[in-house]
Amino acid sequence: MRAVRCSTVVAVAMAMLLIAFGGLAAAAAPKKTGKAGFKARGSVSEAYVLGAKQGNKLLLVNRKNKIVRFGRADRFGSKIFYDIPAGKGYTVRFKTGRKIKVKYKIRIKRGKKKGKKVTKFKKVNQVKGTRRFTVLRMGDNPKNSFYKGIKLKQGLNYVKMRDGVELAMTVRLPSGATLADGPFPTFVEYSGYQTAAPHDLLESFLTGTPDPLAPATSTAIGSLIGPLLDFATVSVQMRGSGCSGGGFDLFGLPTTYDGYDAVETVGNQSWVKGGKVGMAGISFSGITQLFTAGTQPPHLAAISPMSVTDDTYSATGYPGGIFNKGFAFSWILARMDDAKPAPEGGQAWAKALTTAGDRHCIANQKLRLQTRNAPDLVKDNPYRTPKLFKYRAPSYWVKHIKVPVFWVGQFQDEQTGGHFPESIANLKNNPNVWVSMQNGVHADSLGPSTITRWVEFMKLFVADEIPDVPAPILSLSSLLYNELADAPALPVQQSRFAAYTSVDQARNEFKQDPRIRLLFDNGAAIPGSPGAIGAAWDLGFSSWPISEAQATSYYLDGSGGLNTSKPATQAPAQYTADPGARPPQTLIGAGEADAWKAQPPYNWAPVAAGKGLGFTSSALGSDTLVAGPSSLDLYLKSSAADTDLQVTLSEVRPDGKETYVQNGWLRASHRKLDPALSTDIDPVPTHLKEDAAPLPAGEFSLVRVPIFPVAHEFRAGSKIRVVVQAVSGDRPIWDFDTVDNGTTVNTVALGGAEASRLVLPIVSGTTAGAPLPTATALRGEPSRTYATASNGG
Predict the structure, then answer these.
(1) What is residue 611's DSSP assignment?
(2) Is the separation of the CB atoms in 30 and 93 below 8 Å?
(3) How many C-beta atoms lie closer than 10 Å to residue 95's C-beta?
(4) Which of 112, 152, 176, 344 has the highest CB neighbour count under 10 A?
(5) If residue 119 lies in a helix (H) or strand (E), which one and from where to where?
(6) Across the strands, what pairs with 563?
(7) How far is it, in rounded angstroms, from Cα 598 to Cα 515?
(8) Which tens digit of pLDDT belongs to each residue from 555-611?
(9) Residue 703: in which H helix or E strand, if any?
(10) CA-based diameter of the chain, in Å?
(11) CA-based nearest residue to 585, from 565, 605, 600
């Protein structure tokens, strides 16, 4: 399962990297004079051409005979026109170069007479065109009869979506079963990784023999774990990858509605129990669930996203408006490599099947040269352009999800980041939502503190069965976690409902679980094994944001302190914004999976002299729970018109060690907030181009830096610390394309009328359920020896 590290996500997952602007003033199109000889068809907001000749200049013409896009056919004779308004009557035309005679009439006037019409002839270029077609609207879903005629067999299938593009889908059954043994409880795993490759992952895993036709271990929930739990699973390959057709366009509307079509196709199979389809998966396979569920497929029963991003711009791609050139960009480049046409490129299984002559896989490579070019686009789109991001943000779709949801994520996820809780409030009208959040890394969603409850959820809300964790999973869990993360782990527990006889009783009791479950001290649950997977204790709450959390201000003072009272007089402090003063990453030179180890080789460097400001509270008199997003409200003056700010929240322990808790970022020119969304603890920048503004020279401006959500219990005797400095050095594999070059001097106002402050969401009255962990125990939270910054904090 080690390859789960290749997941996002999501990042990852930056739609802004893939989307082309397209626009053309409408011009009259030449009249059609013959059949095109190639095919054109509409998708959701797109149109595509197959079968043209290389180099043909193709004209997309609307029903009013106006040209709305043009372009040339690639060497496969293909073309995709993106971002097309929905509507009927589109056609694609091209000029052939051959001239033909056409008849036309003119009226010859003679004196006062009206004259008469005379037939004339002239030669014009021949223009050929396709049949008229429709560019589809969002939510204009096919009737159920569209899906009823599709019959899936065990193994690899090729299934046409609403726009005629084929997706590869592999049906996997419990060991030894055939479709005749159904009906089976069933779930879908939908991903752009090597998902639908048809061979057996378990056999490949046990033998240790690489198999190009085995699915990626990042998709093991559908290809391995589901069948072990007696589910039938359907592994769906995203368009533009593997042996699926279409062009890769990350989280574009056709990809989103492919999820709808896949669920409805599966839900109409006679071997699917009750016609109920669940979804499951981690990272890439988790993010797709948010999009799909937001389209509301009628046969979808429940989803269980793990380790996801909620926003392709502010969560992973451009945190604080600063481009993440580290993991997020490398991930999207890897997906573009996956999208190259096989057999010369692309995924291993597509190379193998095209070489072997699979006619579907071969034909489905024809649109691969139409993948949007990320490197050319990213630098041109540094703002949150609605055209690019509105429908490519999972958060947009979350508010439309009506089915039960089991969501797991980590606040320090080294890949997708900790922004995801910001979208949980979008589920406030959905009564059946259970969210587990913890400190930790990307792989920890599959940890022993959450995996049993995931099984319970899937069994109760998809299978309609009493939950039971099979003996092989219980007995092999230690081996699997060691293979997954090179770390020991708590044992996986049997379900609390295993001995029940009533599914309804078990389901009703499950519904009494807290809506929000905060897991603490993941990594410190096994004495003597720092970094072992599993949480030591937890707390439950009824909502997110947590209603009990109170915005609490800690003011920054001139001696580097954090105090609940505002300093009466101003004492500014300054630092040089130098991103080169510290290593760019805490795991520089290490592999992605090193973050998953029990003891990662972190290099979390201290604040460099003169290159940052630190502010530290006095020792806490009692345990203090911070739960939610936070804000560092700075009155900032800079020697430059723009600067990038990185904020670090940490715990200074009584033993002299400092433990990382969470980060926040902001490009100062992006400081304009959305008043409808922002609160005292949660500033939400618009990141719109029209709202961007340079810092005024020589005067202080209020700049509210959002700190990503976190849940952390600061222990009595510890101190709360916040640091502001240039972007670098706090994240394992993220890296930032900053505007700072080491010469900008930033000044922060402290006290008086312009009093900078840290605003934290404090939940009063809580006590930690375990002693203070050893310094390096907490997963995803590196420690270092505490050293004061130059200003004393």
Answers:
(1) S
(2) yes
(3) 15
(4) 152
(5) strand 113-129
(6) 555
(7) 29
(8) 999 999 999 999 999 899 999 999 999 999 999 887 678 999 999 999 999 999 999
(9) strand 701-714
(10) 111
(11) 605
